[in-house]
Amino acid sequence: MATAGLMNSWVTILLLILLPLFSHFPCGTEAYYADFPSANLSVSWKNTPFNEQGSLDFVDGSTLRPILLAYNVTQSYPPFGLGFFTNKTLISFSMPASVFYLVVFMMTRVTVSDNDSDREYQFIPTMPPKVLWSANRDSPVGENATLDFTAEGDLVLRDEFGNLVWSTNTSTTYVARMEIGVTGNLMLLNGSNGMVWQSYDLPTDTWLPNQKINNGQRLTASNSSSNLSTGIYYLTVDKEDNIGIRAFVDSDPPEEYATLLDGSFHAIGGPAFGNAYNAIRLYTDFAVFYFNFAASPTDFRFIVLEPNGHLILYFVDTSYPYTFAVEQRRDLLAAIIDSFGDCSYPAVCGSYGVCSGGGQCACPQDNTGTSNYFWPFEQGIECAEITPLSCDHGSKYHTFVDLPNVTYFDFVPTLFATTIDECKEACLNNCSCKAALFRYDTDVSSEIGYYELSE
Ligand SMILES: *[C@@H]1O[C@H](CO)[C@@H](O)[C@H](O)[C@H]1NC(C)=O
Ligand SMILES: *[C@@H]1O[C@H](CO)[C@@H](O)[C@H](O)[C@H]1NC(C)=O
């Protein structure tokens, strides 16, 4: 009996020690949340597994460490937040731990604790966050990086060595607090709730409800869904030329692959966009383009310029409790450029790849059907020269592989009324020319262009 009594008191002591530890350092997916959408200055967060609001691991290899969270379980909108995010599939031997991004995210599913009255909820490991914005997409930070909301009102991200990575530069503007909005806008506000700074002014790859894209601003695709760094596609709005929205591949010079609207269009509608009130409107007669979704978080839509150059409209289904399924609603560029299916997108087969059959990639072959000049270093996606071209050797050692009935997405002729031999000659005499494209015009005179294909 005495022994049992002793054991009981040991158990009690252990519990007393462990419980406070868990509530201060939640880990894995143990964290329970109530709303914490704002912070006053001055406060600092450190990127560690012991983050005050938990470090949540998801089955796709991503980890999220929330800093702010806007959510109300009694209402049907998804949780939005600010936090440190990484996708561990990125971590390779050559590039270890420095892969955290400061992001605005949206969660697609929560579970509510059994005791519904305390209004607490948890995230689910199988449902990773959807990243909507990133502060440091091209400068990821490591463990122990810090985010400081300084006494002066500056929001400052420093890497693990204390080096400045990113800042809002708002120390002279009377910022009093920061807040995450329920449409994914991170805001710095002054003492009278006036907007001083917002992430909506610095779009990355995602266009959110009521976010204005100003003349000259860009929406820039990420490299991949786990590598958030700047990819090769971007979208601009162009008022000066009264053209509308233009999509480019970021080569030198940039090459346009789609124009979404011309000046005569003011809106695109249809069932995918809901009723007229919710329709996406693109006002070409204003300096800003405005995807005027109803700013309602319960009917949440957003547009992403994807890593593959597609422009996708997403819709968040809020009709089921605690579930916010993200559905692809429309490929906005499809009707304009998809005459060749996926082959219409510039880099779908990488450098030198030839796209056919709506998305099959192959390396260029000569008319004997062999490919002696290119090899597929990434099967079905990327081709490389077997012997790289060099300017040192001069043009007499160079010849052409003929590829009949192949075209290029951005054909801008540079020579007119010429012959196929003159076209080859012009390319051979220009060291930076790697391919020539020859096309007969619709009338008898031929039309021709040669290209400096950038890699
Ligand atoms: C920020 O300060 C205001 C006013 O003092 C207070 O009401 C609010 O609770 C504070 N918010 C946080 C997150 O500390
Ligand atoms: C959540 O929404 C309910 C219903 O609108 C409201 O009464 C409550 O105050 C909200 N809770 C928070 C934390 O904002």
From TrEMBL:
Q: Which organism is it from?
A: Rhododendron molle (Chinese azalea)
Species classification: Eukaryota, Viridiplantae, Streptophyta, Embryophyta, Tracheophyta
User: Can you say what this protein is called?
Assistant: Uncharacterized protein
Q: Which domain of life is it from?
A: Eukaryota
